[in-house]
Amino acid sequence: xxxxxxxxxxxxxxxxxxxxxxxxxxxxxxxxxxxxxxxxxxxxxxxxxxxxxxxxxxxxxxxxxxxxxxxxxxxxxxxxxxxxxxxxxxxxxxxxxxxxxxxxxxxxxxxxxxxxxxxxxxxxxxxxxxxxxxxxxxxxxxxxxxxxxxxxxxxxxxxxxxxxxxxxxxxxxxxxxxxxxxxxxxxxxxxxxxxxxxxxxxxxxxxxxxx
Length: 211
Known about the structure:
By secondary structure, the chain is an alpha/beta fold. The protein has one domain (9-126, 154-210): Spore Coat Polysaccharide Biosynthesis Protein SpsA, Chain A (Alpha-Beta Complex). 25% of the residues lie in helices and 24% in strands. It has helices at 28-39, 51-61, 78-85, 107-116, 200-210; strands at 9-13, 22-23, 26-27, 45-49, 68-72, 94-99, 123-129, 135-137, 143-146, 153-155, 159-162, 185-189. Strands 1, 4, 5, 6, 7, 10, 11 and 12 form an 8-stranded mixed sheet that branches. Strand 8 (135-137) and strand 9 (143-146) form a beta hairpin. The two termini are 26 Å apart.
């Protein structure tokens, strides 16, 4: 695997209660954390979560030792997340953010993102083509339009963003953190295992696929 930058700030974001669901009797949060701990054996892992989720995060991670550092914020609000973790990246060249509701993102997907994050790129993340048929319905559930699937991507994590490209109080740019308009972005191939778990049924399906 590409050697992670020693100044990279590593963040595990709690974006949904599905982070606390279990697959194979292991909480999704712990699976995601263990992947980060393997890839970044010397980096602190910053847990970004709302106050209502922080107690569960601490309880689950207590057995993982003292590498976890906790930051209160809303991980789904880019500028709020940026303001909360800005002190953490003061000496960092980049921020890597991974979604705890994507517990089966594998090292191969991390490898592609880390390799693509070179001097010519400010922000990189995995993505996959969207293969399902997408329909827009009106309030009466009547189909109004069929979307062009070629214009839609399934976005995954990790997201790696150069700190100089982050606009802390900027508008939502579709990334975990607001990025500047002139930022050079790139998407790398994502794996199906990197899909987000949005419900208990998703967790059960992902568990079956791992058997």
